[in-house]
Amino acid sequence: MAVDPALDVLTDEQLVAAATDIACVFLESAPGSGKTTVATQRFGALRYKPHVLPDGRRDHRAVVAVSFTRSATWELHQRVRRSWGRTALTWPHRICTLDTLVYDLLQDLLLCGLVRWPGGHTTLEVHDSWKVLVRYGYMNLEWAVNVRSTGDAFVGKRRHENGAMRPEPIPLQRAVSAGRCTHDDVRRVLALSLLRPEVQERVTNRLSQTIRALIVDEVYDANALDLSLIRAVADTGADVTIIGDPWQALYGFRGAKPDEVPALIASIGMTTLPLSQSFRWRSEE
Could you tell me if 43 and 63 are in contact, meaning their C-beta atoms sit under 8 angstroms apart? Predict the structure, then answer.
């Protein structure tokens, strides 16, 4: 008997995409082709697939699915629970945003001392924006969290040609020293820290030790840091599934690099599987 009655209505393309044994696969999805449905079944297939390490031990590393918005991850989370049951998401298996995965990696660097935060914090209070936290003023300089080659994070200034309402430096410095920051700050610090070989090695080892399968929804919304992390997971030998529609890259404002996705697919050696049937339209047109 099928785990979920919804399996009975999946197309052949969807069944192949969800259940394939190919380790690294790109699911090229047409608009309305059921990306979330396939991601749901792909998660369960990887979650319950027997996975054994070379020495014969059972592999207890996580199956992780990520997307770029809380609403998208919540929808996938709910569907996985309905389709595969609550045990599908028992720790360490999880569905989260890319921002969450990025923060986890930075926190590991803070805990091991490769990155040092002002005030010595190893756990940060991460917000979407500074707007509700610190006073803003009109200025040409932008103050933001940066990191030195020594691994020390600090609040530095960057000049812009045009003035704008930006966080004032003293309130910003106080907030950062208290362990507060934004997701943009976390991404900037991690990206700059990855320029150091010792940090690259630590992050690669961390990914290798914690993830056995990664599913990335809406991959065309990924920026340079996201793409580098996907490649790093693939380099550890983990299963990597990326899903996306090249015509639906929504987050260009956050630095999305849709033109770099084909290079990622080629460099990893991914197999492309199509999801070509759209359920959104009622006619051939």
Answer: yes
- Report pLDDT digits (tens) over 17-65: 999 999 999 999 877 778 899 999 999 999 998 776 666 678 789 999 9
Element (H, E) at 94: strand 94-97
Indicate the pTM of the whole model: 0.90
- Which residue do the tokens 């490769």 mark? 114
Q: Are 145 and 183 in contact (CB under 8 A)?
A: no
C-alpha–C-alpha distance, residues 38 and 275, integer Å: 9
Q: How far apart are CA 268 and CA 262, in angstroms?
A: 10
Beta-sheet pairing, 153-167 with 136-147: antiparallel
Q: Letter for the amino acid at 271?
A: T
Contact 138, 164 (CB under 8 A): yes
Q: Which of 166, 165, 171, 170 is nearest to 134 (CA)?
A: 171
Give the total residue count for the chain: 285
pLDDT in tens, 137-178: 998 889 999 999 999 999 998 877 788 999 999 999 999 999
DSSP assigned state of 31 = T
Order of strands across the sheet that contains 211-216? 94-97, 62-67, 211-216, 239-244, 24-29, 271-275
Q: Which residues contact 184 (CB under 8 A, 6 or more apart)?
A: 144
Domains of the chain by residue range = 115-193
Nearest-angstrom CA–CA distance, 73 and 256: 18
